[in-house]
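Hi Prof. W.,

I finally got the Cytochrome C oxidase assembly protein prediction working! I wasn't sure whether to trim anything, so I left the full sequence exactly as given:
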Amino acid sequence: MFPQVEHELHKRRRGRNLGLLVVLLAFVALVFGLSIVKITNGDQMEGFDHRPRSSMLPKDPNPPARNSGPVAAPGTPGAAALSQPKVEQ
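And this is what came out:
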């Protein structure tokens, strides 16, 4: 049986496919390398969880005194009890 002659179109298509393979492998290698670098430097990362980060807040020049007593949110029963004067018996 005679060997089949490959058409020029198939040769060009194979060349483009190999070029695309090289580009995709380079992209995968880049993403993998960036992921490895980010994971190994994980101590410098802080996750984004939609909450303020205390490390980003400025230092308070007049911090509140410690042991200043309990604090309750306004409108709660605990806040009403704390705001009423204590009756001595």
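The mean pLDDT is 78. Does that look reasonable to you?

Thanks,
D.
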